[in-house]
């Protein structure tokens, strides 16, 4: 019997720096603010973990790195498991902020907590290995990679990220990514999680759009993008939702008053157990006091309007839904 499951996807979850300091004064679940129950209610939860989980290591100084993010795993893993995080992307520009020992601690902390990960590892082979998660009978595989911070790239014998220069016209890029997709096998749902592009942008460049469509053509069912700190528009291509950038979810960052990097969404996908994405539900959020909260009515209205405007190029169909937005995907043709 075909059933549906609800998968939650978030933007950057940065638990370091002031968030880490604030958490010393409050219980681990407090970082989820008024969104805690909503997050915990999802059948599966997929995040980009924008920090390392460790109390060890020295700040990376081999190249210029202005920001270094690290959270104490004694509370951070409790917070992640409290809301049922199923998977964490590590292909980003902060997992080596406190050098290799802190990355290795992160891998151990996630493994001990039963949280799958991809996009970083002790070697390049491990960093590029897809993650596999079973959510209420739905087999999900995730391939993860980044074009950020090439000095953090894993090698044959050193820890780091799954790094690639993203270019759909470059044979090396195409073959590297195609190999990762092939390694994922034939799951019910194949997710690509990409940490790509510069900060503080409102839309993807054309080569990212072409690359996203290439991924779908290669078999990706859902694209989970992040890096810009600002959510981008959504495209539905051949039945696959493309979330070019999911923005920020938890952090301590300075707020740009025009781009509003403190505002975003929890992206909930309704998926059948045979891998059909039926719809997306966008739940408006806001970051306050180093925690994520449900947006107020005025904040939610801004989020909805910004998402509609940023999706204009993609002709995406939005419907109002419980203070947020609904995107009918209906890849099975039922809608």
UniProtKB/TrEMBL annotation:
Q: Which residues form a coiled coil?
A: none
Q: Which Pfam families match?
A: PGA_cap
Xref: CDD domains: MPP_CapA (cd07381)
Known InterPro entries for this protein?
Capsule_synth_CapA, CW_Biosynth-Accessory, Metallo-depent_PP-like
SMART domains in UniProt = PGA_cap
Ranges of residues in domain Capsule synthesis protein CapA: 6-253
Q: Which residues cross the membrane?
A: none
User: What family is reported?
Assistant: Belongs to the CapA family.
This chain belongs to which protein, by name?
A: CapA family protein
Specify the species.
Halopelagius longus
